[in-house]
Design goal:
588 residues, alpha/beta, six-stranded mixed β-sheet, 16 helices, 12% strand, binds 2-acetamido-2-deoxy-beta-D-glucopyranose, sphingomyelin phosphodiesterase activity
């Protein structure tokens, strides 16, 4: 018996040593789609010998190459590696799923046609759709919070300039004297301390919104989800309509499909949020959260407005559970079908609806298939949908939907997704939005960003919040917005026309994106791409063409947009390895 165990161990050690070498040469050869598929095939061979062997080989190589700290390699690969190993055991490494995996991991094999799918609708559009007309009544105020990323392990005085996936925490190998000590209330390189969350919520309460929406990313792990629900409940007196973000599960991004044959699903997240949100969304919606993979709809008390919250993570390229079958699944976990049902019910009732979700659909990190199907739903229920609100990018942005994407004009602009800025200081000055809403049409009449300035010497003592800008005041005159018109899709389209010709106005927008903190320069090419992306509510229409072979890791970071300090899982680790092996080979 002991002998068999010994032999197995020796064999495992040999296999893993050899596997690491094989993996190294596959990594070194990866620079286009075929070589990426070959890399997956090598990974697959190892995964077929077992998850442990896979983790060992992948982790050893990551440590050997030194692109990340050993504990970062061990941590991320240990948590997310089993999902990749599971995927690879289930798929053909020459198929469409494998190509999509290469896209998600390394930005290779990016172009594959959209799988045609016509979303079924229970009824055709009404021949005489209900008209929602403004009576010019005073607007309702609504707060939009997003990406708070509260780090409950934030430690004042710890190292803020670290090489971990997240800083401002005490690590066993932290330097005795930090080069940059984490200050109270937050640091540019780190997620939000609890005190910053409290400070923002107190400001939201002071502004007295009729209700709030929260577009996700409290922070992963059971206790954090509960803690942020309690934090919101203790500070805000009006209802909150929350949605689930990619960071609101563990490991991050990992929402298994109901077809995945695993017990590692995110049901624990839905259970917690169902219980935690019931106080605001009511028992029926809370039941839905639990039974519809985190999605629900709820009536806003006293208004003919429904909030439909969708779990966008089943359309997110970095959710590695989406790659465990060669059978194409148009609507994982039925989220699109749920959205259709909720919108049909709203149409039947003569109510309007807002859709809220974490990940906006137009960016490069959303699956083009589901983005296209969602857009079909949007076009069908366009008379009912009065607004769409997202987060995730950590940026103050918008994406316009058109009735015909080949003819992007003001007349064809049918909807806009407004993207909320983040609280987390890692992506600019901490901020949230509030909207003035027409109580008859539920259109957005104004959108204002409220921020606190990280560079203010008073910030560590007590953050002060103030108006950063109002879209109506700042942008209205640039497009000649009439006083009685809302910030309609046509308004946002006309603004993109201004941005294309008025460099000053565009650069102002570029500064606004991060609330004047951590501004990234945007040259003419970047301006062109940025404007193209504003006109892309569908991800197939954006202009984010990744260039494989160039700065893979930067791309991996950008596809998560914010996570520079947070490591971002497998894509980050693997692209760092491929990049490092490349520069190693090119140096003499
Ligand atoms: C599922 O969870 C178990 C227990 O935490 C873990 O050992 C296993 O690796 C996980 N499997 C996947 C595919 O993530
Ligand atoms: C994988 O797909 C290729 C191309 O479609 C096919 O030739 C091959 O037989 C498949 N392999 C397996 C193991 O199914
Ligand atoms: C951050 O740490 C690096 C070394 O890890 C050091 O070179 C750099 O000067 C530090 N930055 C600051 C602002 O202290
Ligand atoms: C969409 O616009 C293109 C380009 O102008 C045009 O050729 C096409 O007919 C339009 N499609 C519809 C359905 O109107
Ligand atoms: C957008 O621009 C078009 C063409 O210049 C104009 O007809 C329309 O009134 C504008 N709409 C808004 C809302 O600014
Ligand atoms: C360009 O935008 C700036 C504000 O950003 C504004 O002051 C200026 O008048 C605009 N120029 C034109 C020609 O509209
Ligand atoms: C933040 O404060 C710094 C330092 O006082 C100042 O230079 C900067 O302009 C402020 N930023 C904004 C967006 O107000
Ligand atoms: C971006 O550049 C392309 C190619 O030069 C051009 O056709 C397009 O009109 C530009 N788009 C914008 C918004 O400037």
């Amino acid at each position: 018996m002991w002998f068999a165990v010994l032999v197995t161990q020796v064999f495992a050690a040999l296999v893993s040593g050899a596997a690491t070498d094989t993996l190294l040469s596959a990594v070194q050869n990866t620079d286009d789609c075929p070589s990426c598929l070959a890399l997956l095939s090598t990974f697959q061979t190892i995964a077929l010998t077992g998850t442990d062997a896979f983790i060992t080989a992948f982790t050893s190589l990551c440590i050997e190459m030194g692109t990340d700290d050993p504990d970062v390699c061990t941590g991320i690969i240990g948590l997310e590696g089993p999902i990749l190993a599971h995927d690879l055991r289930m798929i053909n490494t020459t198929g469409q799923t494998a190509e999509k995996l290469c896209d998600a991991l390394l930005g290779m094999c990016v172009t594959h046609p959209i799988n045609p799918f016509t979303v079924p609708f229970p009824k055709s559009p009404p021949s005489n759709p209900k008209k929602f007309v403004s009576r010019g009544r005073p607007p309702i105020r609504v707060a939009h919070l997003s990406d708070v990323h509260i780090d409950r392990m934030y430690t004042v005085g710890s190292e803020a300039n670290c090489t971990k996936s997240i800083c401002c925490r005490d690590f066993p190998d932290s330097p005795a004297i930090p080069t940059e000590p984490a200050l109270p209330n937050g640091n540019l390189h780190c997620d939000s301390p609890i005190s910053l969350g409290d400070s923002m919520l107190e400001e939201v309460e002071r502004l007295n919104p009729r209700f709030s929406i929260f577009t996700g990313d409290g922070k992963e792990a059971t206790t954090d989800l509960k803690a942020f629900n309690e934090q919101m409940a203790s500070k805000l007196s009006a209802p909150i309509f929350p949605s689930i973000g990619n960071h609101d599960t563990a490991p991050v991004n990992a929402f298994a499909r109901s077809t995945s044959h695993t017990t590692n699903n995110s049901q624990f997240v839905f259970d917690i949020q169902s219980a935690g949100w019931e106080q605001w969304i009511g028992p029926t919606a809370a039941f839905e959260v639990d039974h519809n993979s985190g999605s629900y709809w709820a009536q806003v008390p006293g208004l003919d407005l429904r909030i439909i919250a969708v779990n966008t993570q089943y359309w997110y390229k970095q959710n590695f559970w989406l790659y465990d079958s060669d059978v194409f699944q148009p609507d994982p976990n039925g989220i699109i079908a749920f959205l259709v049902d909720a919108l049909q019910a709203a149409e039947d009732a003569g109510d309007r609806a807002w859709i809220i979700g974490h990940i906006p659909l137009g960016k490069e990190d959303t699956m083009q298939d589901q983005s296209n199907y969602y857009d079909q739903v949007l076009q069908r229920y366009i008379n009912t949908i009065a607004g769409q609100f997202f987060g995730h990018s950590h940026k103050d942005q918008f994406e316009i939907a058109y009735s015909n994407y080949s003819e992007q004009t003001a007349a064809n602009a049918v909807s806009v997704g407004l993207i909320g800025p983040a609280l987390t200081p890692s992506s600019g000055n901490p901020a949230f939005k509030f909207y003035d809403i027409d109580p008859d049409t539920f259109s957005v009449v104004d959108s204002s960003v409220i921020f606190t300035n990280l560079s203010d010497p008073e910030f560590p003592v007590r953050p002060t919040w103030g108006l950063y800008y109002s879209a109506r005041e700042t942008y209205g005159p640039l497009v000649g917005l009439a006083p009685d018109e809302p910030l309609s899709p046509a308004f946002w389209h006309n603004l993109t026309e201004v941005f294309a010709v008025n460099e000053t106005a565009f650069q102002m927008f570029n500064t606004f994106i991060s609330r004047g903190g951590a501004v990234t320069a945007c040259d003419a090419d970047c301006q062109n791409t940025t404007i193209c992306d504003m006109r892309a509510f569908r991800s197939q229409n954006n202009c984010d063409t990744p260039t494989p072979g160039l700065s893979l890791r930067r791309r991996a970071t950008a596809s998560h947009e914010h996570d520079a300090c947070e490591g971002s899982g497998l894509a980050y680790i693997l692209s760092g390895m491929v990049e490092a092996s490349r520069s190693r080979m090119s140096s003499p």
